[in-house]
Amino acid sequence: PAGAKAEPPGSGVIDLGAQSGRWAAFQERHRLSCEEAARLLLDAYEYRGLVKHTGGCHCGAVRFEVWASADLHVFNCNCSICTKKQNRHFIVPASRFKLLKGADNLTTYTFNTHRAQHTFCKTCGVQSFYTPRSNPDGYGIAPHCLDDGTVQTIITEDINGKEWEKAVREHKTIRDMSKP
């Protein structure tokens, strides 16, 4: 309705002015609540140039969404665990990752410094994401666990995880990949 007002939590009433009719029509056309429409708008603004990828484990018990480029920069690490798991991953800030379901179906493995949190599905054993040692404030996402249709290209960079400290110290950007 014309003159409609949105009420964000704790902010009081916001007058949408001339946009109120357009806002209401958008909500109705897409069958969205005010919160859902606001989330869509904020995501589109905050994640400009990024796409929403969805993915999960093999059995479907764990599902997530992540905002990242359609052109992925994937690390191929040769440390002991990444070699055994064939763990190739790209890194995103925690703010761009959302676990949609399956928190109760995840278990975690750590070793050595215990900084990396290797999470995997208790049912099928697939690690679709984890918290990397290089970026404890972000997530390493397995591109092969993403649903089809949102990845354009994958560029793979080998990283010498056998000499982890040296590799991370010498890499020009890896530590900043989890920064928003």
In short:
The protein has helices at residues 20-30, 34-46, 80-85, 164-170; strands spanning 5-6, 14-15, 51-56, 63-68, 71-77, 88-93, 97-101, 106-109, 118-121, 129-130, 138-141, 153-159. The protein is α+β, with helices and mostly antiparallel strands. It has a five-stranded mixed sheet with strand order 10-11-6-5-12, with no helix packed on it. Strands 3-4-7 form a three-stranded antiparallel sheet, with no helix packed on it. The chain has a two-stranded antiparallel sheet with strand order 1-2.
Keywords for this entry:
single chain, about 180 residues, alpha+beta, Metal Binding Protein, Guanine Nucleotide Exchange Factor, Chain A, 2 domains, 5-stranded mixed β-sheet, 3-stranded antiparallel β-sheet, elongated, CENP-V-like
Task: Describe the secondary structure blueprint for this structure.
Elements lengths: L4 E2 L7 E2 L4 H11 L3 H13 L4 E6 L6 E6 L2 E7 L2 H6 L2 E6 L3 E5 L4 E4 L8 E4 L7 E2 L7 E4 L11 E7 L4 H7 L10
Parallel strand pairs: 5-12
Antiparallel strand pairs: 1-2, 3-4, 4-7, 5-6, 6-11, 8-9, 10-11
